[in-house]
Amino acid sequence: MFVIKGGSNVNNAREKDILELLHKQSPSSVQQLATHLKMSEVTVRRDLVDMEQKGLLVRKRGWAFLPGLGIEPLFNQRMKQNSDLKQRIAAYAADQVCEGEVIALDIGTTVTELARELLRKNNVTVFTFSFQAANILSQSNVNLYLVGGNLRKTEMSLVGSITRDTIMKFHFDRFFMGMAGLSKDNGPTDFNLEEAEIKRAFLERSKHVVALVDKTKIGVTSLVKICEFDEIDEIVTNEDPNSMHEQIPFRGKWTFV
Known about the structure:
Layout lengths: L1 E2 L5 E2 L2 H12 L3 E2 H8 L3 H13 L4 E3 L2 E3 L9 H6 L2 H14 L5 E4 L3 H9 L7 E4 L2 H7 L5 E4 L3 E3 L4 E3 L1 H7 L4 E6 L3 E3 L3 E4 L2 H13 E7 L11 E2 L8 E4 L3 H7 L5 E4 L1
Parallel strand pairs: 6-7, 6-11, 7-8, 11-14, 14-16, 16-17
Antiparallel strand pairs: 1-2, 3-5, 4-5, 9-10, 12-13, 13-15
Helix pairs in contact: 2-3, 5-6, 6-7
GO molecular function: DNA binding; DNA-binding transcription factor activity
Protein name: DeoR/GlpR transcriptional regulator
InterPro entries: Carb_Metab_HTH_regulators, DeoR-like_C, DeoR_HTH, NagB/RpiA_transferase-like, Tscrpt_reg_HTH_DeoR_CS, WH-like_DNA-bd_sf, WH_DNA-bd_sf
């Protein structure tokens, strides 16, 4: 199985061949890929459509290229990837939330799964800048605050100075944080500068910071660094625990689900 940066697993032999070619030359045209792979352009286009839906590459006007550090796969694409892993992480995280707590929720697909798990909670206050999470929790018994600001439509998140200034008025028992990547050399990273700023505001105002990181994010680096390792209290993941301490220099609490 071939694994590329960004955490997506490639199970199809043709997809692997396409990605290997793009690692050598990105962008490449459909015609170039078809020639190298000795396949019809129709077949190549079909494969490229499927791969784009998985978030493996980006297509534009007859060309295909690997996503750069600043290219964020669509939310709906990410929701389909490793959903069982994300659900296990989310179930554990929800079980840690106690009655009467005030918690902050990040954006992202794993945190969206956590919002679903929180539907079974009562007497909990939730702050979030994610419309996705807020929409789910609107059907719950939790006391919900959606932090206002400028709407980032691709992720349905609220960002900017209004969002940050509002967060800085409050204190939180826990902040459940997602990320695009977690690597030894670059630490926790994410796709978007504005969203990273909001994460840092929640970090600053929270007693306990829990990073929810499915194993496809381990070893990955994205555009902007979120924080230092020592600003996180706990990392919840489903990676093999025997290899994690060597891969990631984190001295806080590891939880493997």
